[in-house]
Each structure stands twice: as C-alpha cells, then as structure tokens.
Amino acid sequence: MKKNILVNIILICAALPMLIGLTSCKRSNVTDPDSQKPSGFRITLKGLASPSTLYVPNTTSVVKSVITATLKDNTGKALPNKKILFSEGYYGYLKKNSTDTEDGYLISAEAVTNASGVATIYYEIPSGALVKNSGTAYIVARLIDDNDRTDNPSGEVYDTISVIVIPGFESGYELSGKVLSKDNKGIEGVVIQLKGGTGKISGSLITNSDGSYGFYVSKGWFGSITPDTNIYKLLPASYTFEETAPVMADYTNLNFYTSTEDELAVDNDTFTVKGMGETVSVNVYNAKSSTTIPFLVIPQVNWLESTPLEGETNTTIKITANPNTTSSTRTGTVLLQAAQSGILGSPVTLTFTQASGPNMIASPSTLTFAAGSAGESKSAIIKNTKTSDILYWKVDTTNSSNTTWITYGPGSGNTNSTITVTIQVDNTTGIERTGYIFIQAYDSNDNKLEGLYAILNIIQQAS
Description:
Blueprint: H1 2-24, E1 43-50, E2 53-57, E3 63-73, E4 83-87, E5 93-95, E6 108-112, E7 118-125, E8 135-143, E9 158-169, E10 172-180, E11 191-196, E12 201-206, E13 212-218, E14 223-228, E15 239-241, E16 256-257, E17 264-266, E18 270-273, E19 278-286, E20 294-299, E21 304-307, E22 310-312, E23 315-321, E24 330-338, E25 348-354, E26 360-363, E27 366-369, E28 377-384, E29 392-395, E30 406-409, E31 412-414, E32 417-423, E33 433-442, E34 448-460
C-alpha cells in the first residue's frame, strides 16, 4: 500500500513541471487579447458612405459616393499609416481619388489611413451604366496588416458599407446644401432624409466633415428634405417642393442653420399682374441688421418664375408671371426661404393675382390647297381673341415643320396682321401632305410670352 502511494507521489511530481511548462507557453510579451483586452490593443474599423443612396441617371454624368473607413484602437486613438483594402464588384467601380484617370475604374483599391485614422476612396457608377434594377452595393473595407489585434475569431478587421443604388432617371437635378452652426461652421454627422410626396423616406445620408450633403432627383420630383436630429435645433425644419411646382432646376444652397436673430423682409409681398404676363421686382433685405442673409426663391406654381433662384439680402429679384391662357383669374405664391435657421419672418410669402390673359390664334387655323396649286397663295390673320392687348409675334422656325414645298411671309408682325403662305410645287406624291407654322407671341419690349402662341396648319391635297 505504501509502495503504491509512493509511486503516485512520484508520478504527480514528475507531471507537475510539465503542467507548469505547458501553462507558461501561453504567455508572451503581448497580453492575450481574448482574456484581458489591455488598453490600446484591440482595433475597430468603421465604414461610412456619403451619400448612402445613389440615384443613377440614364444618360447624364457619373454619380459618386465618398467611402471612408476609420481605424481606431479601443481607447479611441486613431491609427495612421495603415493599409485598408476596399473591394466591390457589382454595380460600380472604385477610384483612389475623385480626379483619378490613370488607374481607370477598379473593383478593389487600397488606401492608407491619415493622421485621423481615416482612409478614403471613391465609389462611382459611370454614365451609361446598365443599371436596370434598384439594389444595394456592398463595399468591404478590410485592414490588411495588424490583423492579430482583433477579437474577431477569424483574425480579420473589416466592415461592410452599404450603398443603395436607384436607376432610371432620364434627366435630373441636384439638391444639396450644408448643416451650419451660428458661426457658419459645418456640422458633421447629421442625418438628412429625402422624402417623396407621400412622405415615405426614399434616401438618407450623413453630413460630411464640412456639413455638406447632396441628393440627385429626377426632373419633376416633389417632396421634402428634412434633417433628422435631436441634438440640434435647425431651421428651416425642411425644404418642400410641391407637386404644383416640382424640381425643375438645381438647388445647391439648401442649408440648415442653428438659431440667429435676423429678419428676412421684402418691400412688397402682394402683386396684381397683367393677364398677358408681367415681370415685377422685389427688394429683399434684413430688417434687423446689416448682416446678409442667404435665401432661396421657391415658386409654388409653375406659371411663376424667378431670376435668380437664390441670393443674399440687399438685392433685387425679378418674378415673372407667364401669360394666363386660362379662362379665369388665378392666384399663386412664391416663397422666400432663408437658407439658415432662426431667421425671423422666414419664409416670406409673395402672393400674385393674375386676370385671364390674351389668347392668340391664326384665323383660319388651317389653309387647304389643291394638289396642283403651285404658285397659289392664301393668308391667315393673327388675332387676340380674349383681350384688347396688342400682341407681337414672330415665326419660330425651330418649332415649325421642316416643309420645303411652302414659303411664307412676313416672318413677324402684331395682332390683326396677316401671314401669307405660298405653295411652291404641285403635289405629285399621290398622298396628302401637311405642314405647320409655329407663331410665338412677344410683348412690346420683345420679351417672349411663354405658353402663348398660334399654330397655322397647311394641307396640300393628294392628286
């Protein structure tokens, strides 16, 4: 019995150094990250796309998103001079910088983190890209050295960045701006939402380091752009484009600001304009101080137009009411919206009332000639059938038919004057042929009256 105990003790004593030795093999100069996670050891990588939604036109220029990957340790310290590999291979391509042309378009690209631990590349979808369906591009940002400094069981440090891709705009416009503080400095990290006319969110992004953001929308889009933040009180609460006055131009100064104490004002906010069309001037100023206030001009109906669409106080803008070709008086408004928050009086509403305007016609509206009518002439009178206003007119050759078998004259005149059409050759084609002359109206100052015109049709019968 004592012999057995002695043998067991000897075996235990022999095994003890081996157990101690095995334990000491796990120790190294670097503390085990899976157990104690020492300060400064663990690495995190966070990716971001701005904008996170790309609206891809069918025929216009390249659309682009800035892709960043921020590398830090678990104390929040930035890690510079580290290589990050970005890769994607479905919708678009990667570029090392926004103007890079030498490397062309890549499905993977490396970038090195800067002093702030940020690596940057550009994700582009070129013009004419065959993007037929909406979807999401997944861009992987991966650290390609120091991969042992991670808690990930795979030993990799990476993040996946999503970019929503929406195709199919024949033509479109930019809606962009900045989120700015009272001292006019950009505010980074504010979520901006693009909402369609139904209120449904169709895109969102986060402002860049300078506070900037930008969306691309189709021609005729209507809806709103709204900041989504509980941290800042921003004004205006949103920018809204109504269905009656949708987006038909670029708006690049849709800024959101924190509070100020200035007041946007105008010298007159109510106008009665002529039915045949009229342009009025509006003086815009700051009623509280000499500080300039940037503002936007947003017509709420399509028959009111502004020059310019944005500006600063202590300036004059011009609002044009196009001819009222309807049979009744109409009213429309234009909003002057301060492009920063906290501005008293913003938005200013300009109200326009316009009586029914003139109507220009050719009488008769159709001139009919026989097949064998070479050398024959007929005339039509250009009339204003609704008001006593004298209208002036010119033949618009661009919008008239390209018809070589007729001539006409004169090429301009006023209401109650005539235009004469002469047939140059007989119609020997065996089928009836037609043409038309587009006659555009002008006022006495030779300003084109948009939407006011007459069409004179010409028919030459078959033989």
